Amino acid sequence: MEKPNIRYADKQILVAVKEAGMAVQSAAIGQPDMDSRIRTWLLGTTTERVPYLGIVHRLDQPVEGLVVFGRTKEAAADLSRQLTEHRMGKEYLAVVEKELPVGEKQTFTDYLKKERQQAMVSTAKDPAAKRAVLDCQVVASSAGKSLLQIRLETGRFHQIRCQLSHRGMPIAGDVRYGGSRQLQPKNIALCAWRLTFAHPKTGKKMCFVQRPSQEAFSCFAQEIDGLCKTMLTDPIKGV
To answer: Are strands 190-198 and 64-70 parallel, antiparallel or unpaired?
Structure first.
């Protein structure tokens, strides 16, 4: 099995990069997933017979980016609390199929419900719908596309993909939500590029940055480099 892309690991936490097209955890027998790959790697690096790995959050299968796991039950519970209490920072970069004014900042608020493995915008009166909020800024724009920097305030099913598509700016390659078929199968131009949280044992602020690898981001390489330099607070654990 291919070695996982581990960015940081200690006795409490493990941060890794999920590649696009791979599930964080799969229920299908024989289908590779991030959880299984990391557990197999841990078996070769620890004396534990069955290494503990607590899943704290997930990324959609077509999305690449940073994921943190707890290596003890206590660490996983602490990280989960940070996520629930909005103390864990999760930021994304996306290329959308619409040219937008550079610098424009917006907050999108919708009520989303899940139907047949797809998110749909509904109303606040719909008992099946949940409030979804994200902050969005246009970093760059060129040739009918824009690079967006996104910060989630809630974590709903397919939230970013649905909310952007609802406003006429689908993510490049996201055919399910109105994007054109221009990327490799199962991949879309969305990357969980920055992750911040407090270490569950020491309380130290941890910051990780991951450059997107999708070809769709290449036309905004200079702007992404600038973001990485500006947003990275701990070079040792960064790019």
So the answer is: parallel
